[in-house]
Design a protein that fits this description.
The protein is of the alpha+beta class and about 180 residues long. About 30% of the residues lie in helices and about 40% in strands. It contains three helices and eleven strands, in the order αββββββαββββαβ. It has a seven-stranded antiparallel β-sheet with strand order 4-5-6-10-9-8-7, covered by helices on one side. A four-stranded antiparallel β-sheet has the order 1-2-3-11. β5 and β6 form a beta hairpin. The N and C termini lie far apart (about 60 Å). About 20% of the residues are buried.
Amino acid sequence: MKRKIKKSNSFTFLLIVFGGLLAILLVAFYYNKTLNNSYNQSQTNNNSNETKAYESKTLKFTIVVPPELSVKDEEIRFLISNSEGIIIVSRNGTQFDSLDNYLEDFNIKHKVQESSNEENLIIDNYTSLSKVIKYPGSTLNGDKIYFIYIPNAVYHISTSSEELFDELDEIAQSFKYTPN
């Protein structure tokens, strides 16, 4: 009788181990598939220059990037770079009902000491603003930031590299919010 119980326990143990391994493999497969689907890159031709369109399903936007820049999707932000510097695209949730209210709070929290070249814009039919700001820790010339207000979120597209200001402008103007 003891022998039957041991065999039964061994079989149950093996079944549990096999089931656990199968579950781990399924989760790993799903996670890998989700990561691959959250970041799609497509190529588009624009005259003789080849630009790259990038879509982030996680952050819900698309942008067009000049060919000389490389892109890295970190799920919570996009890093666009070359040897001269880096451009960061990120999204912050907000409960503020306007971009002005958000920026008032942003300036206080980030201890903005000075802002210049402020320009009110409409990007993809959303209230937006670009400006150069100086705050503790910023570069001598400041950081150029685009703020794009979408209800319950604000996108930041920014760089501290003055050499990338033109590319930043181009990328920000190509921004499209893609909620679905």
